[in-house]
Amino acid sequence: MVEYRYLGNSGLKVSEITYGNWVTHGSQVENDAAVKTVHRALDLGITSFDTADTYANTVAETVLGEALKGQRRESLEIFTKVYWPTGPKGPNDTGLSRKHIFESINGSLRRLGTDYVELYQAHRFDYETPLEETMQAFADVVRQGKALYIGVSEWTAEQLREGHALAKSYGIQLISNQPQYSALWRVIEGKVVPASEELGISQIVWSPMAQGVLSGKYLPGQPAPAGSRATDEKSGANFISRFMRDEVLEAVQKLQPVADQAGLTMAQLAIAWVLQNKNVAAALVGASRPEQLDDTVKASGVRLDADTMAAIEAALAPVATTDPEETYSVSPKTRPA
């Protein structure tokens, strides 16, 4: 069963394996299968569910809401996000303006079938909206009881500091950041994690398996398996392309004996690795079939010994991306149309 961790400097506990439905619900997976997968997640002890209004242009929230219908609401932690374009994608259907935040939270709650979410997240930093406007709007969302806590996604260390200070001045808690993080993509370690530890902010990390590359299923010199994420544009093929170089795939294959020695699958090893970072509260995982979660959740509670961590470092350090400057290139400088 899944273990739980506190989210940031708060009293909120979340399941350290959190179910995310970015490329599955409303897109890759039929609704009936999505519902069965969510129910399997609940059976395995996963209580935290992450989505966003932009996933499948709002459909993913609707599917998740349907899947959670009838569950005891108090036993769940539901996260969603705002920033990317939704709906007809007009000039105000994007960003972190007060207008878009309020319209988005109301739409998200309606689709999710709930009166509130535990965590409402800024999906990126909005350079076109004054941060004071954004944080004041978030504070009002919290005061209206529509969200309990505020989080962000892919913010830089400096943005976290400024946002945290404003949130505190408005009497609300900014408790989380949601960045990409894996043994192959470690750019948050240099600046974001130290700043977050100082501020009491946790990481909820996405792509802990590097879009599936760390599962070992992609082999150097061979085409990607049919139906895999690397071959499906709807499933994030553009995100995985940076890891599909032969030198990366060759390094990943060196992890098989490491995983065997630890008694884990390579996927479990990858997820367990991110959870060794004390600043990580949860690893986001998706699934297109219920049985995939049976394997994934076994990474919860795993403590990798020093020799195992050293072996992973030795295998992947030459090909891992660690430059903290990469954190400055994630949020668009202008709102996406």
From TrEMBL:
InterPro entries: K_chnl_volt-dep_bsu_KCNAB-rel, NAD(P)_OxRdtase_dom_sf, NADP_OxRdtase_dom
Keywords for this protein: NADP, Oxidoreductase
Boundaries of every NADP-dependent oxidoreductase domain copy: 16-315
A family per Pfam: Aldo_ket_red
Keyword ATP-binding: no
Listed Gene3D superfamilies: NADP-dependent oxidoreductase domain
UniProt keyword NADP present: yes
Family (UniProt): Belongs to the shaker potassium channel beta subunit family.
Name by which UniProt lists this protein: Aldo/keto reductase
Organism of derivation: Microbacterium salsuginis
